[in-house]
Design brief:
- The protein is of the alpha+beta class.
- It contains 17 helices and twelve strands.
- The protein has a five-stranded antiparallel β-sheet with strand order 8-9-12-11-10, with helices on one face. The chain has a four-stranded mixed β-sheet with strand order 1-7-6-5.
- The relative contact order is 0.07.
């Protein structure tokens, strides 16, 4: 009897091991294990291997756990029937249920979930041996399970990149919901990186109305002056009409040529700006930002002209524009400060029509839709289905928009009253 009781105790310990190992290995942080593996941690490499073979891992643990639980219950029933007769069955059932539940399930799983990474690193090598030993039985069981699932019309689930992206978004939201300061900013940046494949170049470009360009037929001295007076390092050059871009002038290349001809006035006047300028690079306005960022890297260029499906110039996009979608506004000593948003003490704000919806959503944690329009003026035109007059106001998505200024058919300035401040 003592040997049977000792065997039951050993089996309960094994059951606790299997239960705790399952929880620890499934709850362990995959990013942390990946980082530890890169640092040369052999146990972390083993855990990542087990994660990649999750079907075999879970099958082996469940098989081992059920074997020891059933065997422990059978031995306990046999022992107690010897001592108490037929009543031993009920006693064994109740007693083993409590022992398994408390000591082989709740206790080890609670510990494992509180110390998942540490516990996973400890049990990983042992579990790996168990998986190898039970692999033939696990493969057979999995094969039978797949056949049964097909008989019931259940297809195996496939985890694609879209599901992985949604899981990553969920993890970011989970860790930044109540975050403040740098942690919140990091969450915004991570979400912006995931959005790069969904945002198009046309949504972030500088519209052609706001592009500073040079006429190729201007005198050389005038072009040099325009480049020096501009805060930008690259300027498009047009000929005959502003939409006909023929080159892109780089300020550094131009000034290098000016230095070489600085002592010879006649040669400076005969300097060919087009020979110095680079060929323009045209990209479709529907290009995803992720593709455009990769194209900037491959071509080692920072500046591109944006065209629509008919080949008409729509604006320009730069590498800085793409990076600002990730890290927010990047300002330097040459930037022109053009205030686009003025927040009033009452909570309302005056916004210029060309301010993008994405910038407003990012700055004020709004959720205005940006699928059909890129700017706040475009949103008003799309939702109102008209060109509004000055003084008109509209209510969309809980916000109130009041038209303050219009130039011809272009909305220049809007007052926005968020839902929390709208008392009307």
């Amino acid at each position: 009897m003592i040997y049977i009781a000792a065997a039951i105790l050993v089996l309960l310990v094994l059951s606790a091991f299997f239960s705790g190992s399952e929880t620890a290995l499934t709850a362990a942080s995959r990013p942390l294990m990946h980082q530890l593996e890169k640092g040369g941690n052999a146990r972390a490499r083993l855990i990542n291997k087990l994660h990649n073979e999750k079907e075999n891992l879970i099958g082996a643990i469940l098989l081992g756990n059920n074997l020891v639980n059933i065997l422990a219950s059978a031995l306990a029933t046999s022992l107690l029937m010897t001592l108490f007769g037929e009543a031993g069955v009920a006693i064994a059932t109740l007693g083993m249920t409590l022992l398994v539940l408390i000591f082989a399930e709740i206790l080890p799983k609670t510990y494992a979930i509180r110390h998942a990474n540490r516990a996973a690193l400890r049990v990983g090598p042992i579990v790996n041996v168990v998986v190898i030993l039970l692999l033939p039985f696990v493969k057979t069981i999995n094969f039978i399970v797949r056949i049964l699932l097909r008989l019931f019309g259940v297809k195996p689930a496939s985890e694609g990149s879209e599901q992985a992206a949604q899981e990553l978004r969920g993890a970011i939201e989970l860790h930044t919901t109540n975050a403040e300061g740098e942690e919140k900013e990091s969450g915004v940046m991570l979400r912006s990186v995931l959005d790069l494949a969904d945002v198009q170049v046309g949504e972030i470009m500088t519209h052609r109305k706001g592009v500073l360009a040079i006429n190729a037929e201007d005198p050389v001295e005038s072009i040099i002056t325009q480049v020096l007076d501009s805060p930008f390092s690259r300027l498009p050059m047009w000929k005959d009409e502003p939409d006909n871009i023929i080159a892109v002038v780089h300020a550094k290349a131009l000034l290098r040529e000016v230095r070489e001809h600085s002592n010879i006035t006649d040669e400076l006047n005969e300097l060919s700006i087009q020979d110095i300028a680079a060929d323009p690079w045209f990209v479709p306005e529907y290009t995803p930002l992720l593709d455009q960022l990769q194209a900037f890297r491959e071509r080692r260029e920072h500046f591109a002209m944006v065209v629509d499906e008919y080949g008409s110039l729509q604006g320009i996009v730069t590498l800085e524009d793409v990076l600002e979608e990730i890290v927010g506004d990047i300002s330097d000593e040459t930037d022109i400060s053009v205030p686009g948003v003025h927040v009033h003490p009452d909570g309302s704000m005056v916004v210029e029509g060309n301010v993008t919806i994405r910038d407003l959503n990012r700055q004020f944690d709004w959720e205005l839709p940006d699928e059909e329009a890129a700017t706040i003026a475009g949103l008003i035109l799309h939702e109102s289905r008209r060109i509004p007059d000055v003084g008109q106001s509209f209510r969309f998505f809980g916000f109130r928009f009041e038209i303050l200024r219009r130039f011809h058919h272009q909305i220049k300035t809007v007052r926005i009253i968020p839902p929390a401040q709208d008392k009307s």
